[in-house]
Amino acid sequence: MKKQFAVIGLGRFGSSVCKELFKLGHEVLAIDISEDKVNDITNYVTHAAITNATDEKALNTLGIRNFDQVVVAIGDDIQSSILCTLLLKEMGVKKIWVKAQNYYHHRVLEKIGADRIVHPEQDMGIRIAQHIASEKIIDYIELSEDHSIVELIATEKVADQTLAQLDVRAKFGCTILGIKRGEDVNISPLPDDLILKSDVLIVIGHKNDLKRFEDEGM
Ligand code: ATP
For 13-55, how does the pLDDT look when each residue is reduced to its tens digit (9 = 90+)? Predict the structure, then answer.
């Protein structure tokens, strides 16, 4: 279903979010205070506006309250990021994502009711470190302090066994959500599905259980 998103702040992060949402077929309003940034994105979004996102009247004129989700990707100017989030909250925007610069910024955003707070550099750093540190891990997504999703390459140890034979949930407490084989992704694998060497297993679980599965099960 086509949704309406607004992205405020068109640095590298904000503009990537805009372009990807638009590619996915959604309506995207891109906003920045800089005319150059807005000109650069015009061909990749539905609408683009040169606007100071701390100006309540200007945000109202853009009808920002009607968007399904708004992403605040104002970086260095933490004060503007906080003020803009506060205005969006007061206007009743349903879901607000905010890029946080640091721990204190994160805490303030939490207090004023940002729905999702992201740290792209930190999150990407963690994902890449996990990938570098383990030959088996090819991707890593942190869901919370304790839980993650990892993509693991199937080794000989698990190859030619069905999910039922592996019984990962009983043995390690984690769950195989999907199996990637080349371009194909099986997102609801059945107990009788066979794992082949070099398949990619998408596994969710507690970090300790995932680590145990990676070390002992694979
Ligand atoms: P990235 O790392 O994603 O490139 P960044 O974290 O360095 O970005 P900045 O470049 O500081 O972030 O800010 C992102 C964008 O937010 C800039 O294009 C800037 O013009 C825009 N911006 C800053 N303040 C406002 C504001 N009040 N209203 C709208 N846009 C703003």
Answer: 999 999 999 999 999 999 999 999 999 999 999 999 999 999 9
- DSSP summary character for residue 103: H
Query: For 103-124, what is the mean pLDDT?
Result: 92
Task: Please give the average per-residue pLDDT across 103-119, as a whole number.
Answer: 93
Per-residue confidence band for 183, with pLDDT thresholds at 50, 70 and 90: confident
Domain boundary residue, one of 118, 152, 175 = 118
Residue nearest to atom 15 of ligand 1 (CA): 9
DSSP string, 15-43: HHHHHHHHHTT-EEEEEES-HHHHHHHGG
Pocket test for ligand 1, best of 77, 84, 87, 122 (most atoms within 8 A of CB): 77
Same domain for 33 and 109?
yes
Based on the fold, state whether residues 11 and 27 are members of the same structural domain.
yes
